[in-house]
Every structure is written in C-alpha cells, then in structure tokens.
Amino acid sequence: MNPTTAQRTRRQFGQQAIGTTVTCLTALSHASQAAETIAPTKPFSLKYILGSPMYGTTPLPVVSQQAKVIGANYIDLWPRPHADHREQMESMGRLKFQQMLQKHNLKLGMLTRYDLGPYRLASEIELLRDFDGKLIVCGAQQQTGDSLKKRVAKFVESMKPHVAIAEAHDVVIGIENHSGNLLSSPDSLRYFADYAKSPHLGLAMAPYHLPQDPNLIGSLIRHLGKRHLAFFQAWQHGKGCMKKLPKADELLQMPGRGKLDFQPIVAALRDIQYDGWTEIFMHPVPRGIPILPTTQEVSEEINQARSYLSRCVSQVNRQ
To answer: What is the rounded CA–CA span in Å between residue 79 and residue 86?
Structure first.
C-alpha cells in the first residue's frame, strides 16, 4: 500500500468512528429522555400512623379496626394518662397482641413513652425489635450549662449510650419538642439538628409547641432534614389543650380546623423527601378520654383532617 492510500484509509476510518460515536450518543440521549417520560418523579405523599390516645381507653381490638378506616397500616401505643393501650397490650399478652395485629393487617410502628424519659427506654426498645417497630418517642432531659447551645450539646452527648442500644436494635429515638422542655424553642431544635449525628436519634416534631408560623416551622423542617426529622405530628395549637373548652374550640387543634396553614409545612416535608410517619393528633381534656364520644366520630374527625392534608399535598405536588 502506498503512503497516499494509507493516509486516505486512516482518514476514512477516523470519520467512520466519529460518526458511530455521535450516533451512539444521540441514541443514548433519546433513550434517556424517553425513560424520563415513561418514569416521572413519584409524587410526594404522607404515610399515616394511628395515635391510640385519639380513642382514649377504647379496647385495643376496637381501636385496631380503625387503622384501615383512617388510612394507616401502623399504630402508636401510648400508656396512661393519655391512653392505656400499652397496658392493654401487656394484659392481653404479646402472642394475642400479635395475632390481633395480623387479623387487622396492622403493625406496631412505634411507642410513645414520655413517662420513661430518655434514659429508661432499653426494655421498650427491645419490645419494639420483637415486633419490628422502628420508633420510640420521649422528651428531653434538662441539662446544666450557661447557654442553650451548650445544654443541648450536653443532652445529645448524654444520649450516646442509649442511642447505641437503639442502633443495635434498629430503632430510632425521637425527642419531642415540648413547651417547658429543653427542646422547645426554634433555636434549640436547630442546635439539636447540628449536634445529633446519629440517624438513630431524631426530632419528633409537634407544631403545637412551636410558634404558629408555618414558614418558621417549614424552615425548621428543612434545617432538620430527612436524617433528623424522625416523626411529624399533624397538630396545631388552636386554643390549647390545658383547660376544658367547648368541643368546637378543643377541636381547633386538628389540621384544617385551626388557623395554622399546613401547606408551607407540607412543602417543607416534600422538600426534604420526608418518609417517616405522620400522626394526626390532638389532646382532649381531661386526658384519657376519646376526642369525641364514639369511635366512629373519632375516625371521621381524623379523616376530615386527613382530607385537608391531602389537599395540601395535592397543591404542593402541583407547584
């Protein structure tokens, strides 16, 4: 082969290779666009859990039947004084309790144990493990220190051995923000998010105990992020829950009834792709009674709040 022929052959090969590469890249681009069209991003949604205190001390088998009525597959058991379903569970025995859950296609998702505080949770964490539960909620312990930031840091440090137990059992400890508690102000929640490094220690957010500003609550959710927001209670302050009020005023704690606009809050949950449980909640006065006289009325009230939250979710997904 003479030099001129060899140069022409190499040039032709190079042009063919470039053409093939461009064709492949174009095909990949078209395939990628087609895949995006076929499989759009999944819309945001809320995953509900049944909070047992909404039904007072109604028998646990009756309460369990309501889970499917309110769109929940999980239950959160509370002890006295807010309910007695944790005690009912022990009375019926764990085998019978498990059979009841299976009958209603229900799972024990979490326990709320304010009565135990943050340092006496080990046995309850083991119980959750036995039922494949994932979350236990409690309050924070006050600490000494000359600044809120240092007190929050000290509390998070004090939780390390308890978080280690939770981690070993694949459970998360959720600390609720509560008025009069160490974790109560917006700044305390921000500090908590900054210091709590373990995914097995998070915040159980109760908007009731925060300033009723949806944009502020939304900013706190974004600061916490998916990693540190362990639980969300759909609960607003309304006219409070510390003294007996007319029932219409008491129900202002429910989403959609009071003045708090949940749409910016839901938008923040969407932004962090929150996939934990949402519990529609309020406190009756006195504690330990159902929020309304009959089980059917309680479930209907929860579903009214759920419909309101669904509208918020729909609006957010259209943004």
So the answer is: 5
The closest of 232, 240, 299 to 265, measured between CA atoms, is: 232
Task: Encode pLDDT of 179-189 as tens digits.
Answer: 999 999 999 99
Alpha carbon 124 to chain centroid, angstroms? 19
Q: Is 131 exposed, middle or buried (0-12, 13-18, 19+ CB in 10 A)?
A: middle
Tell me the CA distances in angstroms from 41 to 38, 48, 61, 160, 249, one per residue in order: 10, 21, 38, 37, 40
Q: Concatenated DSSP letters for 245-274? A: --HHHHGGGSTTTSS---HHHHHHHHHTT-
Greater model confidence, 215 or 29: 215
Q: How many CA atoms lie within 13 A of 222 on its CB side?
A: 13
pLDDT in tens, 272-312: 999 999 999 999 999 999 999 999 999 999 999 999 999 99
Name which of 283, 301, 290, 209 is nearest 245 in CA terms.
283
How crowded is residue 313: how many other Cβ atoms within 10 Å of its Cβ?
20
Does this model's pTM top 0.85?
yes
